[in-house]
UniProtKB/TrEMBL annotation:
One Pfam family per UniProt: Peptidase_M1
The organism of origin for this protein: Nocardioides aromaticivorans
Domain Peptidase M1 membrane alanine aminopeptidase as annotated: residue spans: 309-454
Residues in Aminopeptidase N-like N-terminal domain copies: 52-220
Protein's name according to its UniProt entry: Aminopeptidase N
Keywords: Hydrolase, Metal-binding, Metalloprotease, Protease, Signal, Zinc
Signal peptide (residue range): 1-21
Length: 473
């Protein structure tokens, strides 16, 4: 995610009782609504592993009502007499392996399902949920995330979006593959992740089917529906792309936005040369006409506001490696998403006529080194807290960490380190601690002091004193 620079970065609000100390375990017991993350304890659930989501939704723009039927294929991680999914909308029916199941909503965000018979550990089963409601009526974790008007809807947000439109184990550690079918009036187009499979018209409505074959975190799944100008083809390296720009924008803004989106292909190709093979089957992007103050790295197809600009395209496409393919292990690890994507902006600019990485770092350091005691330096990037995962320090100081590391080990060694990182954790999850360990292992250097100084000591790292930068002046 990259916030629009002219807006004030929003703070995540916590609902009392959802952010207790200490991580819950995934073996908390059958039916447990508690997931693995102490920042949002009700994200994800105990006892199940989602494998595939088959989502079918229809959306009514007049009433803003979403009706859905989602079949989730899951594996039991323990003997289950009940299990829980994350969903905000009211539910009318649930089946497990084709048999009617009892269900309840003990918490607004949780759907508890009691199958007709105990599910044995290791068994694969299918849960079929029918639901309907007005997504914009619901909040979770202090967030009201539904983005829509009478002409367009885009299901995009972070760290939470899925519970507003489909039932899931909503935590990045439980990735799955997706089929998404969306029914809307036939005059509108539907855009989602992955590859376009089909569009079927029936009367006044059309159903569009998109498929993602690479594992994806639930918050990265999205759909958009509205009037769009679209373009498709292949990048210079042969990667299929699909671009869409909202027709709610003026003609001039649509032209400018599409011109920016068309840079996604060359940027993806350059990133692939730097980081290794592009991790997915397609690329692209969508520019919405809705008023949104951030861009988001939806897997294969980032979403942007009308204010789209070149470096934000680099940022969101870099997230395809840093954040999407290699997802966080816990939300406290957000630096390995946002700091890495921001550094990618710096590296891309340096390779295309902009300041060198060392020059950028020196300038960034000189701009901020007088701010001792400010949150920019005191925030612990290894544990920023739920309210601070999108703090400026996570992005900009986060990028400075990698720039300083490049000054220390060299550009070739850093590139090799990043390529090893994304290869080792492809389609998986990783933590800050794992990156620190890999950096030390790959370079053969003792980097404990370096990472302490830049990530968590809470003071301004020395400049010339550690050979990384000029002294603060």
């Amino acid at each position: 995610m990259r916030m629009r620079t002219i807006l004030v970065v929003f703070l995540l609000l916590l609902v009392p009782g959802l952010s207790g100390a200490g991580a819950a375990t995934l073996t908390a017991g059958p039916g447990s609504p508690v997931g693995p993350d102490p920042y949002w304890r009700y994200d994800g659930n105990g006892g199940t592993d989602a494998l595939r989501y088959n989502i079918q939704v229809s959306y009514d723009f007049g009433s803003r009502t979403l009706r859905g039927r989602t079949v989730v294929t899951m594996r039991a991680k323990q003997d289950l007499t009940s299990f829980t999914l994350d969903l905000l909308l009211p539910v009318s029916a649930v089946k497990v392996d084709g048999r009617t199941a009892r269900f309840a909503k003990p918490l607004n965000h949780e759907l508890k399902v009691v199958p007709p018979a105990t599910i044995a550990s290791g068994d694969i089963f299918r849960v079929d949920v029918t639901y309907a409601g007005k997504p914009d009526a619901y909040t979770y974790g202090g967030e009201r995330n539904w983005l829509a008007d009478r002409n367009e809807v885009v299901a995009m947000n972070q760290p939470h979006m899925a519970p507003w439109w489909f039932p899931s184990n909503d935590h990045p550690t439980d990735k799955a593959v997706f089929d998404v079918r969306v029914s809307v009036p036939r005059a509108k187009r539907v855009v989602s992740n992955g590859s376009l499979v089909s569009r079927t018209v029936s009367g006044t409505r059309a159903t569009t089917h998109w498929r993602t074959v690479d594992p994806m975190a639930t918050y990265l799944a999205f759909f958009a529906a509205g009037g769009y100008d679209v373009a498709s083809g292949r990048t210079g390296k042969g990667i299929p792309y699909y671009y869409a720009v909202s027709q709610q924008l003026s003609s001039g803004d649509r032209t400018r936005a599409m011109r920016q989106l068309r840079q996604s292909g060359p940027v993806t190709d350059w990133l692939q040369g730097w980081l290794g093979k592009y991790p997915f089957t397609s690329t692209g992007g969508l520019v919405t006409g809705l008023d949104v103050g951030f861009a988001l790295e939806n897997q294969t197809r980032p979403t942007y506001g009308a204010w789209i600009y070149p470096s934000v395209v680099v940022h969101e496409l870099a997230h395809q490696w840093f954040g999407d393919s290699v997802a966080v292990n816990r939300w406290k690890d957000i630096w390995i998403n946002e700091g890495f994507a921001t550094f990618s902006e710096v590296a891309y600019a340096a390779a295309h006529g902009g300041p060198s990485v060392a020059s950028w770092l020196n300038g960034a350091y000189q701009d901020r080194c007088h701010e001792s005691g400010s949150s920019f330096w005191t925030l612990d990037l290894t544990a920023p807290g739920a309210a601070n995962i999108f703090d400026e320090a996570v992005y900009d100081r986060g990028a400075m960490v990698l720039a300083a590391l490049q000054n220390r080990i060299g550009a070739t060694a850093l590139r090799d380190l990043l390529r090893t990182w994304v290869a080792q954790h492809h389609d998986g999850n990783a933590s800050v601690a794992q990156f620190e360990a890999l950096a030390a292992s790959e370079t053969g250097e003792d980097l404990d002091g370096f990472f302490d100084a830049w990530l968590r000591d809470g003071t301004v790292p020395s400049g010339a004193g550690n050979g990384l930068l000029h002294a603060c002046s």
